[in-house]
Protein 1
Amino acid sequence: MQDLAGKHIVLGLSGGIACYKSAELCRLLVKAGATVQVVMTEAAAQFITPVTMQALSNRPVVTSQWDARAPNNMAHINLGREADAVLIAPASADLMAKLVHGRADDVLTLLCLARPAERVPLLLAPAMNREMWAHPATQRNLTQLRADGAVVLPVGQGDQACGETGDGRMLEPEQLLQGLMAQFQPKLLAGHRVLVTAGPTFEAIDPVRGITNHSSGKMGFAVARAAQEAGAEVTLVAGPVHLPTPLGVRRVNVQSALQMQAAVQAEVDRATVFVAAAAVADWRPATAADQKLKKDGSGLPPALHFVENPDILAGVAASDRARRGDLFCVGFAAESHDLLAHAQAKRVRKNVPLLVGNIGPATFGQDDNALLLVDAHGTRELPHAPKLDLARQLVADIARRLATPPRA
Ligand code: C5P
């Protein structure tokens, strides 16, 4: 998906060991369709060479305010004017302190100060030792930078190059790419709190076995990401899947349908939108054995008894808040055939205003899908496309419905 096609990004590097991640970030930006102009401070060039960054961005790197290549000899002015966004990764404690004070004694801080701030967003990906991160001076600077309009991306947590463990690691390149892409999405769900379920559930038979559904969780994760990009506060209740959490999304991991129901009930009172994309198992073993069931030599399988799981979506849709219109509920239906008829019937049965149908076997585990949106008045097809694309279209559709009072 060439999500950044036509975008010109200034990628700034200040000094820090996280510079090694910026090489990969540069590659990802180029792969996403952006043109990338790398700007490095002197300190950054101690960690990674401009040669590497030039090769990856396919453009000479700017390292000095005295770079005389531009005909007007004003690199710091031109750089900011040409950009659709400035992303500084890594943003060191020192660089951010300088930005707070409007200092401009190197080309990177100069261009930040000179950029047309109302048109060119500044994103900062901090990276530093945990003590430096926690220092009141750094935290004070972050608050000021946010107040001045900068987008301060979160930091990661874990092992640091200095041998310590804690907050302050720079996000991974893929997460930084997500943060930048989000910047270009319209904030259609600003102020909304969206709760999403995704993935399968796993219903234990014994400690080593269980029954589950086919579901990679990709569609639900894409919906969570698209809602976050659209400015919503997003909580994702995820069954057992191997997918990274979208940037800025709060994730609650569950295994079984009962756990998913409990997690949803704990969160749903705060939500204004509920999207049930999970493939919840319809049944669970009546009791899960606490020891592994063994073959007893008779050749007969064990008799398993199942009970029906609660319908999480139908339960939420029947709540007072949903019925009053304070909570907008969206269901998903994965069918193998007769999509329209099944989706329509399911929408009525679950009593939700919007149901999203898709052909399950065609999309399980894939990065693409096609959706059929069904409401009380008709249908809308979202043709075959990457799941993130479809999720963004779905989010835009939901936002329109939230803005429009329901038809009588
Ligand atoms: O009934 P069916 O599983 O086909 O309905 C699918 C929709 O209902 C999905 O939105 C799914 O997340 C939701 N669902 C649920 N709890 C269940 C079964 C399905 O929330 N026990």
Protein 2
Amino acid sequence: MAGNIVVLISGRGSNLEALLQQELDGDIVAVISNRPDAGGLEHARQHGIDAIGLDHRQYADRSHFDTELIKRIDSYSPKLVVLAGYMRLLSGSFVSRYAGRLINIHPSLLPSFTGLHTHQRALDEGVRMHGCTVHFVTAELDHGPIIIQAAVPVMPHDTAAALAARVLTQEHRIFPQAVRWFMQGRLTIDGNRVVLKNDCAAASATLIHPPLDCETAP
Ligand code: GRF
């Protein structure tokens, strides 16, 4: 049940790299960045994948930019569009065009900490668990049906950078998993819930890495 995947990025592309290293039951055929200097475009080129820099600053407004973005994406007839660190708000028409086949990775345990600076905000709130979420994209920012999450402990002396690194390791683990499930046709959206078919590993979709007692304070 293969199909094309188009990935949108804005930056370094470590999640893209994680996707490129795994069997996804589909092909990443193009990577598009709204920032032409995004490091992730180079990863794509190294893998022989179309790498397109589409500078949003060259367009009059979001609607014009998204219209061009849609044109580029649709030329690859993707089964799935993946936001892998795409840091630009999407227009309503973009989101509705790809409804049910547009997924995003967010660096928090949604619905906590939507938006930016999630790791610092998690530290400021004193939460003991933090993590990441892969979800379907809907009109409301960072609010769509959740496919998979991974939780990590917040350690006593964490900085935002240390916490971000711990979360990022889990992003690289769950994102390819979510894409693979989608490409295998195992995901059904039921209201705000995602139902995963035929996978006993689904029971372990929420994991805690590393175990809570694995680090001792200095
Ligand atoms: C990741 O933390 C992702 O969750 C967020 O943006 C960051 C992108 O990192 N949406 P990278 O470009 O994949 O390395």
